[in-house]
Amino acid sequence: MNGDTHLSIGELARRTGLTVKTVRSYSDRGIVPPAGRNAAGYRRYGPEAVARLNLVRTLRSLGIDLSTIRRAVDRDTPLAELAAAHAEALAVQIRVLSVRRAVLTAAARRESTPEEMDRMHRLARLSEDERQALTREFLDEVFNGAGTQTHLAGVRRSMTPHLPEAPSEEETEAWIELAELSQDPGFRAVMQRTAEHHTADRADRTAGVPVRDAEAVIRSHAAPARAAGADPGSARAGLVVDAVTAEYARLCGRPDDAALRERLVARLDTVNDPRRERYLHLLAVINRWPAPEPLSPELDWFRMALRARIAA
């Protein structure tokens, strides 16, 4: 055997950065078999053992077990197939760890009790079918089971979360909070009343008049006045109220009278619930939509202006 072309176990360890003990262990397992032995009986390794050990070290750093590595280096398992299978296994691990981290982050932020943490963990681990069932049950109650066959079908679709197949930690945390919110009886009642307001406005609407929500009407008129710093009790705010109620009356096909203004106040008291805006924000995170513009500032300002106008 030519000593110039073969390596001792110590030389092999130095070239690969592994310990002699590790190289011997791999050799004993048949992962890096010796090319032969010298006259004294010590193992000698060919130059290909360096490349083989470097591959083994790479695969071990990726978490692959030694039995699988032996099959790979012996070419019983093609390296590409091994890499693909392990990449998928790691992806599953990453998703599991992401869910756990999202639950722990949410629990720490809210200072949750053990019961609350358990509930969040169960919500985070729901399957796609279970998530859909939970969402469907919530929306059925909000829309009284009729949302898929009426003008509210589009509203219902716009309120439906679709958690991505590989959600980020932020998306998982948003899903947990949205799922909890959808189980809140008070929030369900608010959303049910909001749907009823939509239906009532639609029922009263004059044929041929474009469909436009009261919130959109309010924003278009109130935003400039509020941005300019107009006081809700000012004359300018009163003109904004008159413009909004006139357009709202036209859209609903009703007279612009005290009853209509009281109806609009009641609608604003419902739609301006902060939980509704939070739901829409979480929905945008989950569905990867642009963040919605907050309505609360304009609605708060207009509600105060409307109450001042009614009082006057």
Rg of Cα set: 33 Å
- Overall geometry comes to rod-shaped
| Low-pLDDT residue spans | none
Number of helical segments?
A: 15
Main-sheet strand order equals: 1-3-2
Biggest beta sheet attributes: 3 strands, antiparallel
Percent in helix: 55-70%
Total domain count: 3
User: What is the number of beta strands?
Assistant: 3
Please, what is the average pLDDT?
87
User: Termini distance?
Assistant: 109 Å
Structural class by sheet pairing and helices = mainly alpha
Spell out the helices and strands N to C: EHHEEHHHHHHHHHHHHH
User: Strand share of the residues?
Assistant: under 5%
Question: What does this protein look like?
Answer:
The protein is mainly alpha-helical and 312 residues long. It has three domains: 7-77, Multidrug-efflux Transporter Regulator, Chain: A, Domain 2 (Orthogonal Bundle); 78-125; 129-311, no CATH class. It has 15 helices and three strands. It has helices at residues 9-16, 20-28, 48-61, 66-73, 79-110, 114-124, 128-142, 153-158, 169-182, 185-204, 214-227, 235-252, 258-271, 274-287, 296-311; strands at 7-8, 36-37, 43-45. Strands 1-3-2 form a three-stranded antiparallel β-sheet. Strand 2 and strand 3 form a beta hairpin. Helix 5 packs antiparallel against helix 6 and helix 6 (114-124) crosses helix 9. The longest helix is centred in the N-terminal third of the chain and has 32 residues, at 79-110. The radius of gyration is 33 Å and the shape is rod-shaped. It starts with 6 loop residues before the first strand and ends with a helix. The mean pLDDT is 87.
